[in-house]
Write a structure and sequence with these properties.
Layout lengths: L1 H8 L4 H24 L2 H29 L3 H21 L2 H10 L7 H20 L3 H24 L6 H43 L1
Helix pairs in contact: 1-2, 1-4, 4-7, 5-7, 6-7
Main location: membrane
Organism: Cannabis sativa (Hemp)
InterPro entries: SWEET (IPR047664), SWEET_rpt (IPR004316)
């Protein structure tokens, strides 16, 4: 939505307006479907986030830039910087997923098609920003390209990794410990039994 606002402010921003209008519509449909199938608690939490960010923060940026910065060119620059910062945050968001993939050795939550599409999208927007001399569009997509390549490399590294290797090792280690513990218990019980028998025999010998 911020980039859509930036497109309306910018001269010759038809491509930015078109792409981001379609993207906003798709994301709205996705959000509606998510809310339909989400639990009541998650639905309330999501509504709070939508009100806070999509309405509150976006409205604040819209009103503040319109009132505080009357000059259109300066407003374009200010909104461009804001869009660039949020774009960097969006591209940095998958870092948490990459951490989970490395930790669990599972690419279940990081499909290759999505990483490839994001990388390709970053490349296209970078060249678009470069050709129209728009650094606010081109600059964040450099980071998007780097993170996209990193995601695909991590996917290729862990796509054939066996997720059960670590749990199996732990189970085997646990089983071995149980065996040792069981043997120790049996030995202690045997030793105790022998000691008791010896005491009984000694007592019997003393009685005789």
């Amino acid at each position: 939505m911020l980039t859509l606002y930036y497109g309306f402010l910018k001269t010759n921003g038809f491509m930015i307006i078109t792409i981001n209008s379609v993207g906003t519509a798709i994301e709205t449909i996705y959000l509606i479907v998510y809310l339909i199938y989400a639990s009541r608690a998650i639905r309330i939490y999501t509504f709070k986030l939508v009100i806070l960010f999509n309405i509150g923060a976006y409205g604040l940026i819209l009103v503040s830039t319109s009132l505080i910065i009357p000059n259109r060119s300066h407003r374009v620059t200010a909104v461009g910087w804001i869009c660039a910062v949020f774009s960097v945050c969006v591209f940095a968001a998958p870092l948490s997923i990459m951490r989970i993939v490395i930790k669990t050795k599972s690419v279940e939550y990081m499909p290759f098609a999505l990483s490839f599409s994001l990388t390709l999208c970053a490349v296209m927007w970078f060249f678009y920003g470069l050709l129209v001399n728009d650094l606010f569009i081109a600059s964040p997509n450099i980071l998007g390209f780097i993170f996209g390549i990193a995601q695909m490399i991590i996917y290729l590294v862990y796509k054939n990794a066996k997720k059960d290797e670590l749990p199996q090792f732990k189970l085997q280690e646990l089983s071995a410990n149980d065996v040792v513990r069981e043997r120790t218990t049996e030995e202690e019980a045997t030793t105790t039994t022998i000691a008791i028998v010896s005491v009984i025999n000694s007592n019997e010998s003393g009685v005789v």
